Predict the structure of Monocarboxylate transporter 10.
Amino acid sequence: MRGMAGLFLMCGLCSVVYLPINKAKESHEQNLDNIGTVKKKEFELHVLKNRKFLVFCTANTLVMFGYYTPVIHIIKHCQQELKIPEQQSYILFTYLAGASVISRLVFCKLGDFQCVNRLFLYQVSVVIYGICVLLLPFVKTFNSLVVIHVVFGLMDGGAMGQFSLLILGCVGQRKVNQGCGYAMFSIGFGVGTGPPLAGYVADESGSYAMAFYLSGVVLIVGAAITLLMKFVKQPAVTEDLEEVKVQEIGLLIVEKVTVL
């Protein structure tokens, strides 16, 4: 898990400093008159000043804080509290992975329809995922755990399948590389701190129930924060006006008339 968190952090740092080779030139508006030329340069909004993106990153950090907690600690939970053998517990990941592959194909295709709101898919998937995490302490049989992990896999496609496209919608195509970088950084922070803290809570309380409760609540709160994206307003784009005076040059045209 530490390696995974470090990988996300490294990907985030690399994406933040990445610049494409064929970077598009900034557009300039030019107004010509008899006296000179006026150039207007529009400054694009930095991703860290994009309020919708900041709200999404904050929510996503909380989501990642509790997202991998059941995946990391479910084996010990099965061994210590449910008395399920370790080899049998590993089968749960097979069900989760299979459901995730299918759901990513379905939900990503579903998000292509104009009548479907990608943010709504993300919110619903995270909320259902969080509810399933809250139900884990009440599950006592292996078959019930299989059902829970199948739902985990299905909701994983609904949430993570919309992740990149939601970033694109927040920052636009020109800033999507930096947006993904900062988002990866937030994922790395959440993944690197959430599961270890959940393990500490489980060690102190003697049960994984409190850790699952906290993770489920954090997931639902993270999904609720994304509702603010519809209400935040972006600041107006500022313009820097540079006036360049150009001396008017008169061209004297002398016509030669040849008389035969």
Summary: The chain has one domain: 46-233. The chain has ten helices and three strands. Residues 157 and 224 are 19 Å apart (CA to CA).
